[in-house]
Amino acid sequence: GSGWQSLGGTGEQRTLAAHFVRQAILTTNTSFLPAAFSSHQARRVIDTALSYLPATPVENGSDNTLRWKLFEFLKVEEEDYVAAAQVLGGMRMSDMEAHEKCNVYVNIAECYLEEDETVEADSAVTKAGSVVEDILNPKEHQGLILRFKSTYARVLDANRKFLQAASRYYDISQAHEQIDADDLLSLLGMAATCAILAPSGPQRQRILGLVFKDERLSQLGTIDKFSAHSAVLTKMYMNQLLRKDELVTFTESLSDHQKAIMGDGFTFVERAVIEHNILAVGRLYNNIYFVELGQLLDVEAHKSEKVCASMIVDGKLKASIDQVDGMLTFIGEKSALIGWDDAITGMCVQLNRVADLVRVD
User: What is the pTM of this model?
Assistant: First the structure.
């Protein structure tokens, strides 16, 4: 404390800090660092030393080595994920190769996700994304690249970008050679979750179709967290009406951020199911009173009208509203969305068949 402050300027402080860091790493006493990390006073010394290091690299990268060791201690022993991420955030990275930088950023993002610090996690995973393409010999670093992809999907999920998250989760769930089969099934379950929560549209129908056609879909029932997913997703993909009682188990399985209430007063799952059911009704009716529609959707009539109006404006629903009679009239045999969905789904099926044939050859 006072002795440190009495040193003549930052030059001497930096020299002493670098010397301390080198000695801490060079010591042959294996219990020194764990004991130092556990001591409040010693930790203050270490933190101070790391914050006063010179601009030039410390010999043998001792500062980075110390940061890694402190990071592992904070993450594993103390489960202080934010502090662990902050320690790695100070890594000297100018001499690192792309895979080493990516590893640092992915670790930081993973730690912030543990504490639902989504802004910081997003920032770290974006930095990882800026270097992942530069990794030499990507086959040697497939595990790291998959961790990056998984973390990126989790960040998208945490930020409620469910459509993009569903697509990312599904892509990783196909990595059969690198990941354990049980983990792949869980990733498929996460893809199903996000696909169900995503806003209606052609892209959502596409990802629903990919998960629906995956031969492992029926196996999701073997995992408690995903026990209701197959039934819900199948009804959504087949454009069949979903009742509230069919969604209880699915809703209970969601994470807190997936249960959030949006500006319109609906949760993500409520909004997704209402939009889905409106489109399903459009396959059964030419027109319908909002009082009737509200009963089918299990919401008040004025709310069903509001959602329909929003869907029409967004181009998700081809219909007209008669406010005098309180009636919704569907235009054409199918909504524009379902027509698009069928065309895109058909094209994706063809592409999948071509890809399968190429693999066989």
Answer: 0.81
